[in-house]
Hints:
Elements: E1 47-57, E2 64-66, E3 69-81, E4 87-105, E5 108-122, E6 131-143, E7 156-167, E8 173-180, E9 196-203, H1 216-219, E10 230-235, E11 240-246, E12 251-261, E13 267-279, E14 289-294, E15 308-314, E16 321-330
Parallel strand pairs: 12-16
Antiparallel strand pairs: 1-3, 1-16, 2-4, 3-4, 4-5, 5-6, 6-7, 7-8, 8-9, 10-11, 11-13, 12-13, 13-14, 14-15, 15-16
Amino acid sequence: MKKSIVACLAVALPAALFAACTGGMASLTLSSNWYANTSSSISAATHEELTYLVRYEAEEDGYVAYADGSYKTKLTAETISLANGENELCYHLNAVLDIPVTFTVDGESETFTDRVVSDVWFRDVRHELRPVRSEKSVLTHTPASDQTPASLEEAYFAYDYTFTAEYDIDCTSAEVAIVYRTVEGEDEAQEDAEPVTETMTVALDGSGTYFDNEQLLFGLRAVDLSAGVSFRSVNPVKRVQETVGATTEPIASSETLRFSVNGGEAEEREISAISFSIGYSGANSGLSQSLVYAVTTDASANTYRNVLLRMDVPVLHSQGTLRYSLTEATFSD
């Protein structure tokens, strides 16, 4: 559908992991598992880069298809100003998803390259990885229905927006802003429209660990996932705080995956891992995402840094699954 739907942000993105209502819960015990020594403190020399192949697995022949894409993350550390005016060395996580998508109806096709770019700054484990601020820019085209549309123009929704959040020092509230833009080449009546901005304050009530939506996949690396996981986050669709939880029991196993480490040759590796699904834990649960993480085998020589190895993200309207598989890793010392 060739217009930008500003009332809905429900797009299938790699970090769109949400859950149901919040209540009292214990804070998670966090470790710096992205370092070789998991007890390491944050360092200005921190530099980690991960690259994933994103491959589409279709449920059946349909009107939408994704070509191979890439998902890349980069973790660094930099001194930033906190909400109370103090300066502190914090983590900066940047993530970029690029993936081509093609819609075909009655022999007519149209192809786009979707892109999602996110940045989030957050404190170290001594401060529970509390976020300071985040920003996500999205340009994406999503299937409009689980049925083949009558025309190509009705096959997809186009989204172009930026979502930002800034937190107070104690992470008790978030200032949220969403800027909606008209997608270039879409509805001609909207081409000259100015961006629309919505702002709001979201209260962060209750107890338990809080992660920003853009740090969820990273934050889970800090946790012992064997006992399950539950924490708080702001649902950017509803713009309220909700609880994120595992929807399946964690399963310990070994994962065989071919990827390179620190610039070496790619090779097949068998890794001790844990797999589970995560998503809404209450009514209107939606679709869960399946995650597989490496686990700590030696806290002082943590070879694979509890990295996310694989992730399966359902495409809207049961059109298939996007599988993220690690292909390259450059770890911090």
